[in-house]
Specification:
- 48% of the residues lie in helices and 21% in strands.
- It starts with a helix and ends with a helix.
- α2 packs across α3 and α5 runs antiparallel to α6.
- Strands 2, 3, 5, 6 and 7 form a five-stranded antiparallel β-sheet that branches. It has a three-stranded mixed β-sheet with strand order 4-1-8, with no helix packed on it.
- It is of the alpha+beta class and 268 residues long.
């Protein structure tokens, strides 16, 4: 029984603890101001006569004066107060934005003293940073070496996050495959196909003419044999009395004549 009560109490505690986390809303706040200044954002209860703080955010602007925050809360609306400082000193009065901002919708401000021209953020920021780091000598001192380290190991660097694991794993696989191939090549000897020299035959003109004459003699012999067979067949027809045998013999004569014509046409 006590165990059941303890289990129910634990589940209820976890449920009550998880409700604020599940209902939290993220709101992105972007501010453009002077470069390299400390920016503080105070989030407060909206439409309240007594100031009630719901959180304080702090960050530094970059060289273009851009700075961003993410306010996560279960509140559905809020007011904002922005402080701009330099070396822990306020450079302008606090800027109050009592506009009852809805949570979840992005917010953007431009805050600077009168007379200061805000710097436009270029769209090719990443390309410029890469060009700067290419001209830096690795191992140098000061700000240049920090830029090089950021380009390699920074958030978007070549070896940032899990990229270094993929690159290292790929190199190890290539090295292992290279050694395995060398071992297999030593153990298994692949036969080399021997090169066969090209045979070049040279014939004399007299030999060519003799071969042609030999071919002519062979053709004549074939024709003579065919004519002889035709004559023999004609002689057999005269001796045959049966009509069927005569037809068969005539058919054979026609075929032999066709063969003779083919041979003659081939010779010509």
């Amino acid at each position: 029984m006590k165990g059941m009560k303890l289990l129910c109490f634990s589940v209820l505690f976890m449920f009550l603890f998880a409700i604020p986390m599940m209902s939290a809303i993220d709101t992105e706040i972007k501010i453009k101001t002077m470069p390299f200044h400390e920016v503080q954002v105070s989030v407060s209860k909206p439409m309240s006569q007594v100031f009630e703080s719901w959180g304080n955010l702090k960050n530094h602007s970059d060289r273009y004066g851009d700075v961003s925050f993410v306010f996560s809360s279960d509140k559905y609306s809020f007011d904002l107060i922005v402080f701009i400082k330099k070396d822990n000193e306020k450079v302008m009065p606090p800027q109050k934005f009592l506009e009852n901002f809805p949570a979840g919708e992005p917010i953007y401000f431009e805050i600077a003293p009168s007379g200061f021209t805000l710097i436009e953020t270029p769209s090719t920021e990443i390309i410029e940073e890469v060009n700067v780091t290419e001209n830096v000598t690795i191992g140098g001192e000061g700000e240049d070496s920090q830029l090089t380290g950021s380009a390699i190991f920074g958030e978007d660097g070549l070896l940032s996050g899990g990229k270094i694991y993929y690159i290292t794993g790929g190199l190890l696989l290539l090295i292992a495959a290279f050694f395995i191939f060398k071992i297999i090549r030593k153990k298994i000897k692949f036969p080399k196909s021997p090169k066969q020299p090209k045979e070049i035959k040279i014939k004399k003109l007299s030999e060519l003419e003799a071969e042609k004459k030999e071919d002519v003699r062979d053709d004549r012999k074939i024709i003579e044999d065919a004519e002889k067979k035709i004559k023999e067949a004609q002689e057999d027809i005269r001796k045959l009395r049966s009509e069927d045998k005569i037809k068969e013999a005539k058919k054979k004569i026609i075929e032999d004549e066709k063969e003779l014509m083919r041979l003659r046409s081939g010779k010509e």
